[in-house]
Amino acid sequence: MKKKINITGILLIAAFIVFLVLAGRGMEPRDLLITTLRGFSVGSVTFLVAAGFSLIFGLLDVLNLAQGTLYMIGAYIGWTVFVRPDTFIDITPLILFLMAGFALGFLWDYLADKITLDARKKKILGWVFVVLSVVLAVLILPRYPIAMWELDNYAQSPISFSYMADQGIRLPVSPAETKGIPAMVALYGSFLISAVLAFGLALIRYKENRQHSLHWKKWRVFGILIILGTLIMAFNTPLTEWLMNMNTNLLFVIAAIIAVLSGIGLGALMETTMIQPLYSRPVYQLMLTLGLGTIGMQLVKAIWGMPEFVIPKPEMFRGSGPGCPATTVKDVFTHHCSTIMILGGRVRVYDEIVLPIVGVIILVLVWLLLKKTRIGMIIRAGVQDSNMVEALGINVRRVFTLVFALGAGLAALGGVLSAPSYGLSVSMGEKFLLNALIALAIGGLTSYPGAALGSLMVGLIQQFMIKYGQIGIPIPFTDIIFKPTPAIIPASTMLLMVIVLLILPNGLLGRQD
Fold it and tell me: Which of 368, 434, 122, 78 shows the shortest CA–CA distance to 252?
């Protein structure tokens, strides 16, 4: 059956293009090029937040208002890996051991099934274990040694470390100090915390008539986490020195990978522990994700502080000496120029070229994952008829967790990639979440291609309004030059959204259901 062509949507897109063409006639060619590329850049970052939101809502019917916070956390984690590798190496074993307790979920389900209590008493016992895990966390976690910056000491604050790293200098740091108990004892104590918590949650969520197995293959993830955590703890100093002396290009790639994995892990944790029980309660989902977003912001304030700073750009995009600005692509790679001359204007290589390219690559990769792979087929089938997929022996809940984790990982990727351009602040998540929601409303809330189209339109209109705020708009038949104020920039995207929704309530590419 052929899809019905959305003539109205095509006309609206054509009208938007005509509007941009007319707006571009009032600019110099170089200004038009730079403004358009900056629109692509903002659109790419917005898309990474919107794409994750669209996947989660379109496939799981969950409105994740914590998506902006995940974007922000990805940026701060990337900064930590890039600027303070010592802190990253110190905290990694702790995170691995905390994950290890949850990796034994099959064991806790098995033990919960063997306890001869009714469901109500098991839930009560489960809450006792949850409270016990909190007590253990309060006693053990503060004693785990982590080398950290000092928010109250400007010379040792994140701002100073960022500035000096941007100058190619690393400030000396104080090694982590043992606080009362040996570091290895605190590390294995963290596993005890997660094990007690995971067992308590297994009791709370216990359901009868489930088969539980202790097959040896299920122990592999647990073993890998424990061994890896122990090795990182044992080789802490050489690993830290290795990262400290690493080329910044490779270090930035590692920081991006760690940020994405962190986002995926946080997304999986959110979905399995808090979202799963609320799939039939959309209002509670909204309240929960909004609350988690607020909690995340407060944690960022407590750990990294309020002031804004940036992740220094990798060496590949920092060159400014002989041969720069570049005039050809070859010059960019030869001299590592931060800018390239196009039509007489300076274009920032990382901000206006790399970010849009990455956005297109992610768009294509996720589309291929959903449309051309077996896991994509399972995801789409599970959304359409989860009972049928379950009957085929596929764990639909695990598939849903994967989708939620993927959406969170995309947001974290957007955060770490945008941090060298737009900086880090506790409000960065709110800004791009608003952009993403507007983009989704324009493109279609449940449409993945719509997320890309809406994000591009939001980025372009914002940058055109910013540019006209600088050069002004001549009013015909008068000598008046109208310059849009900063407040008009978000208002312009809102106006575009209102126009689209009045004509197409489901968005440009949204499903008509």
Answer: 78
Which pair of structure tokens corresponds to residue 12?
Answer: 């609206």
User: Is pLDDT above 80 for 395?
Assistant: no
> Residue 511: inside a domain, yes or no?
no
Q: What is the pLDDT of residues 42-76, one digit of tens each?
A: 999 999 999 888 888 877 888 889 999 999 999 99
Q: How far apart are CA 225 and CA 194, in angstroms?
A: 13
SS (H, E, C) 381-425: HHHHCHHHHHHCCCCHHHHHHHHHHHHHHHHHHHHHHHHHHHCEC
Q: What is the DSSP letter of 150?
A: -
Q: Phi and psi at residue 50, in whole multiples of 5°?
A: -70, -35
With CA atoms as reference, report the closest residue to 512 among 53, 55, 504, 380: 504
* pLDDT value of position 196: 94
Which tokens is 486 given?
A: 């900063």
CB 110 within 8 A of CB 212: yes
Structure tokens at 252: 């930035």
Query: What pLDDT score does 420 carry?
Result: 92
Tell me 322's DSSP state: T
In the structure encoding, which two tokens stand for residue 153, read together? 């000491």
Tens of pLDDT, residue by residue over 282-314, are 888 889 999 999 999 999 999 999 888 889 988
3-state DSSP assignment of residue 174: coil
- Please give the residue range of the domain that contains residue 435: 7-503
Looking at the structure of the chain, the number of domains it has is 1
Cα separation of the two ends of the chain: 17
Give the orientation angle of helix 67-83 with respect to helix 396-422, to 10 degrees: 60
CA–CA dist 210, 463 (Å, integer): 55
Residue 354 lies in a domain: yes
Q: Can you tell me the distance from the alpha carbon of 510 to that of 20, in angstroms, rounded to the nearest whole number?
A: 23
378 contacts 389 by C-beta, under 8 angstroms = yes
The length of the chain is 513
Three-class SS state of 347: strand
Query: CB atoms < 10 A from the CB of 29, how many?
Result: 12
Q: Band the pLDDT of 2: cuts 50, 70, 90.
A: very low
Q: Is residue 413 part of a domain?
A: yes
Residue 115's pLDDT is what?
85
| Longest CA span, the chain | 87
- Residue 512 within a domain: no
Residue matched to tokens 């905290």: 91
Annotate 198-256 with three-state secondary structure.
Answer: HHHHHHHCCCCCCCCCCCHHHHHHHHHHHHHHHHHHHCHHHHHHHHHCCCHHHHHHHHH
